[in-house]
Amino acid sequence: MNINTNNPSANNFEKMIIKDIVLQNFKAAEVMEKYGIDFCCKGKRPLDEAIAEKNINGEKFLQELENTFQKNSGEEERFETWDLHFLAQYIVNNHHGYIKEIIPVITAHLEKLNNVHGAKHTFLKNVLDEFESLANELLNHMEKEERILFPIIKYLVDSKRFNERPRTEGYGTIKAPIKKMESEHDTAGNAAENIRTLTSNYKLPADACTTFRVTYQELEEFEKDLHKHVHLENNILFPKSILLEEELLTRKK
Ligand SMILES: [Fe+2]
């Protein structure tokens, strides 16, 4: 379904599936994030369901959402038109690369905060623990994607290019590793949400020093990047890979 950008209010956004809105224009993700609406792990449901659950000002939210669809509202990223191997590589280079680089930085900042302010702000220890476990899970998760799942996707893309039926005996079906990766995404999404709750939506305490500010900015950026990353995988890369495999397996030779 294509969204009418000449007259965004003509679109019945409430009844649309959340991920489909974000797929048309990634700028919509920023508005969703602002209102705490999950478009990656819980993106496969209608928007009105999420609005009711979140108890937000639906009118204001929908107006902001419509504004993002006004023509000339900015560059649109059309990931869904990309070759799947190229998209997987993009995810590795941009999102996996960023996560690997930023984890030691955020960990060091959280350790420092906890050492200096932990006695007064006891929640900082919980934030540090939660971030460390999220970081370990993500490092593990990305390795599985890079060593197992993404090479299968490349193999499927190559099979199509060379007009060959893929030999799937080695891995069964791509649906199995994808299901596992999706469940790990849910775990990571929940951990990021826990950090948001522990920090009261990244609200700085009155006595916050610069390290506090920087760390909260980094954590918020980390969460935003994770949402975009999971969205690209759950809503574009994975379903399209399943379809590609199905299409190739119906071939005779
Ligand atoms: Fe992933």
> What class do helices, strands and sheet pairing give?
mainly alpha
Uncertain stretches: 72-76
Our count of helices gives: 8
Gyration radius from CA atoms, angstroms: 20 Å
- What best-fitting shape do the alpha-carbon axes yield? globular
Helix content: 55-70%
Could you say how many structural domains there are in total? 2
Task: Give structural notes.
There is one protein chain. The protein has 253 residues and is mainly α. It has 2 domains: 8-68, SP0561-like (Orthogonal Bundle); 79-249, no CATH class. Helix content is 68%, strand content 0%. It has 8 helices and no strands. The protein has helices at 18-24, 27-34, 47-54, 58-68, 84-117, 123-161, 175-198, 210-249. Helix 6 (123-161) packs antiparallel against helix 7, helix 6 packs parallel to helix 8 and helix 7 (175-198) runs antiparallel to helix 8. It is globular, with a radius of gyration of 20 Å. The two termini are 34 Å apart. Mean pLDDT is 89; it is low at 72-76. Bound molecules: fe (ii) ion. The site of fe (ii) ion has 5 residues, from helix 6 and helix 7.
What's a concise summary of this model?
The protein has 253 residues and is mostly helical. It has helices at 18-24, 27-34, 47-54, 58-68, 84-117, 123-161, 175-198, 210-249.
List keywords for this structure.
68% helix; binds fe (ii) ion; mainly alpha; SP0561-like; 253 residues; 2 domains
